[in-house]
UniProtKB/TrEMBL annotation:
The keyword Transferase applies. Residues 5-156 form the N-acetyltransferase domain. Keywords: Acyltransferase, Transferase. The keyword Lipoprotein does not apply. It comes from Dactylosporangium salmoneum. Pfam families: Acetyltransf_1. This is N-acetyltransferase domain-containing protein.
Amino acid sequence: MSDVIEVRRAGTADLEPALDVWRAANEARGRAPTPARIERVRAKLRAPDAVVVVAFDGAGTVAMGLAEPGRADDGAGAPIPGYGHVSMVFVRPDAWGRGHGAPVLAALHEPWPRTTLWTREDNARARRLYEKSGYLPTGRTARLAEGDGIMQLERIR
């Protein structure tokens, strides 16, 4: 059962707390981000076409998500109308398993009838969330620089 009080589009004042959730979740998974990576994510959160969503409970910002217009040529090309790409959904580690990710992900779907995302193949928690939210594997896979396998999922409304 979820104890989320509010899920909404992030305002400027919400961006640093959202970044803190992202950082804490990565650290808890043993993937502490470098200062350069933190700055790249901070810039993505502030991008004019970013859709940033935050969730609050009694303890503050508990979850965050970022989506952006889907683009041709694996993200290097022009935006594709009606297509969004979910770049991140993260929940504060002390709130894992409480249902906070699902409403954040649902809010990221609102602007687009089609969304895609990439996730690590071994991230069972994220895959359960995505599959429960209607995502299906596209069959596309890749390897990150450190060797981890990732897979693409897609949701069509």
